[in-house]
UniProtKB/TrEMBL annotation:
Pfam families: CTP_transf_like (PF01467), PEP_mutase (PF13714). Keywords: Isomerase. Residues 13-143 form the Cytidyltransferase-like domain. Belongs to the isocitrate lyase/PEP mutase superfamily. PEP mutase family. Its EC number is 5.4.2.9. The gene is aepX. This is phosphoenolpyruvate mutase. NCBIfam families: cyt_tran_rel (TIGR00125), PEP_mutase (TIGR02320).
Amino acid sequence: MKPLVVYVAMAADLIHPGHINILKIARELADTLEAKEGVKGEVVLGLLTDKAIASYKRLPYMNYTQRYEVISHLKEVDRVIPQDSLSYENNIRALQPRYVVHGDDWKSGAQSKTRQNVIDTLHELGCGELIEPNYTVGISSTQLNLDARAIGISTNARLSLLRRLINAKTPLRICETHSAISALIAQNSFIEVDGKKLEFDGFWSSSLTDSTSRGKPDIEAVELTSRLNTINEIFEVTSKPLIYDADTGGKLEHFVFSVRSLERTGVSAVIIEDKTGLKKNSLLGNEVEQTQEDIEVFCEKIKAGKNAQITSEFMIIARIESLILEKGQEDALKRAFAYIEAGADGIMIHSRQKTPNEVLAFMKAFRIRDSKTPVIVVPTSFNEITAKELGEAGVNVVIYANHLLRASFIAMKEVVEGILRYDRSKEIETKCMSVKEILSLIPGTI
Ligand code: SPV
Ligand code: MG
């Protein structure tokens, strides 16, 4: 006889008494069924996968395997299965549960659609009913998340976040940050679309904006140590992963030390571009002298970096400059496959065209031969295409590479000129955050 199933779905990241209350009720229901019908009553826990969770909010602190380990040892739970989407439908159809149990807090708000689908599916199958115990007041995952965020994140947990995110959702949206305050803005800003929270997934440490914010040209003139200081300041107040723009990576012999330093700091990935000689910003293209590195030489640098890294999660991403330097698609593709063969964990294809056409053409040809390797793009000049559209074309990570610095530059210039023009600050006050706001912006100021 098939067991009589009581189904509960959870992310089960930070387990609290509210979860235990639901599981106890599910256990009681299963035991009562068993006593009444003489058939085993089974509590099946549908554990939301990282992908399911990332479809509506930030990734859980623990990955699926870790959460599985915790939840499968709770005595109320008989069996744990994955629930791969927010919707319960597939698992309900497969299990035909007698009861589905969920706290009554989902009657309104973002989860109400999921709830309705549970009711409709149970009704259609005629197998069971939805039980909705009172929500446990006084404790919530949201509050625990806020508390955990205030404590911070460990170096390793942050480092491994990028790979987890790439596996869980497409595309990731990454925002340039050049200081702790710009990172705080990038980390904490969000919008809500269809009940889902849309926010940036991580940070880009840009060579262009790290140089510009120090008043230096983007020619590898700012030392790693100086840039790492900024990253440490960013990491002190945030919890999202960071991708580091290492320009050419410098000499192979130096690159291996950079990899170690970045890893030690908790950076998730480094991108190195296949140029040699004095590096100039890619968006200048052939207007300035720029030389692409020999394929084999660049492959050696990738291999040396891979051998130097200590963790398995750190990513070395090879950036292809063929389209920037008008060498054509063939060259770009040839390099992509050679770099992946050399051990690159991903590629970045760059372009300075006004339209995304050449990047999309590259993606099409690349994805025919390689469906897995993560691809990163930086749509600074081809800015009409949305991240969603790039994701649909097979791009995994979209980097908005310089926008926060560019925005602050314009705002600051307007304000300094305004003060000079009016010889006082009254007229530009509306362009500035109020002193009261700035005093309450950072916890601990007051
Ligand atoms: C950067 O942000 O420094 C980059 C991207 O490398 S780009 O400026 O487009 O070359
Ligand atoms: Mg750069």
